[in-house]
């Protein structure tokens, strides 16, 4: 394990750092509110409202540097940290109010779809404006999931004995059979003319504050990649909440709302969105591999099979 979130020395150091960087007097003790194998979150009550401390395990530590870089570039569209410790992967952030999920908790299907469309347009604009940061983000340790490196990452995963065992013979053979086509999809996507930028890779209505304006946060799965890969999780999750199957009109509407923020031939953009949804299943598998490697607590349940489950999705139909 990389960390022990309950080690007294670690807790003491973390809480000292928090108190040093608070922007308002605390009104109570710092308390753990969520612990996962890859991260831990503590809540700090203050006279100005709650403050939030987050720490990640080593392979996800880059989130702190990424959050800081995005805040400097676009402070009106992301959650701006109060403090960042890049070396230790620590973040201290304010409370930004209800998330989009909170705001939609009592809304109907049409209202939910409209707000999702609005959010996706805002997110696409963020990605476009972050394009000049791509090389800088890679230098900060943000994972590289650009289309030209994904085939090698797929090969690495398939060669991993743990992944092979988790897939089992039948699924391993099925995913391996897709590998040549996967390389072709990546090459076509790389030639699409849409530049690499930050790609959240876990974009849902729980990772954006309702605003206005929408403020995006929780970048622990993110990478530098083809931007349209964000649609994989976003549309999959939207389909779940809306009761919409892959290819449903609601999901097409959301895809088109997102793509409306990008210049280019609409048919070419739609083709790129389909390809990005396919190949980003590998970036999702790599993200889970980082999250579970050196986990700070035992891994169990569906989380334990997340890497292989995402790889197995390569043989499944497109979301859009």
From TrEMBL:
It holds the Pfam family APH. This is Aminoglycoside phosphotransferase domain-containing protein. Residues 57-259 form the Aminoglycoside phosphotransferase domain. It comes from Catenuloplanes indicus.
């Amino acid at each position: 394990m990389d960390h022990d979130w309950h080690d007294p020395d670690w807790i003491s150091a973390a809480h000292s750092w928090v108190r040093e960087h608070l922007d308002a007097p605390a009104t109570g003790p710092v308390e753990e509110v969520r612990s996962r194998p890859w991260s831990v979150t503590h809540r700090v009550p203050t006279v100005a409202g709650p403050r939030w401390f987050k720490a990640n395990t080593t392979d996800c530590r880059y989130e702190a540097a990424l959050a800081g870089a995005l805040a400097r570039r676009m402070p009106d569209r992301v959650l701006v940290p109060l403090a960042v410790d890049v070396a230790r992967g620590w973040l201290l952030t304010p409370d930004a109010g209800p998330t989009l999920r909170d705001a939609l908790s009592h809304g109907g299907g049409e209202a939910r779809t409209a707000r999702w469309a609005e959010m996706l347009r805002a997110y696409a604009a963020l990605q476009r404006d972050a394009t000049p940061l791509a090389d800088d983000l890679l230098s900060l340790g943000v994972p590289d999931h650009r289309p030209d490196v994904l085939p090698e990452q797929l090969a690495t995963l398939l060669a991993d004995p743990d992944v092979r065992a988790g897939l089992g013979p039948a699924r391993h053979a099925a995913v391996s059979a897709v590998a040549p086509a996967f390389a072709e999809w990546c090459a076509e996507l790389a030639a699409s003319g849409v530049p690499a930028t930050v790609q959240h890779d876990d974009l849902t209505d729980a990772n954006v504050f309702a605003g206005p304006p929408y403020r995006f946060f929780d970048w622990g799965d993110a990478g530098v990649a083809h931007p349209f890969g964000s649609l994989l999780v976003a549309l999959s999750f939207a389909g779940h909440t809306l009761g919409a199957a892959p290819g449903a009109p609601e999901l097409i509407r959301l895809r088109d709302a997102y793509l409306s923020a990008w210049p280019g031939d609409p048919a070419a953009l739609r083709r790129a969105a389909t390809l990005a949804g396919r190949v980003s299943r590998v970036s999702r598998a790599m993200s889970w591999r980082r999250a579970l490697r050196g986990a700070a607590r035992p891994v169990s349940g569906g989380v334990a099979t997340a890497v292989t489950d995402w790889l197995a999705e390569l043989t499944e139909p497109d979301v859009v």
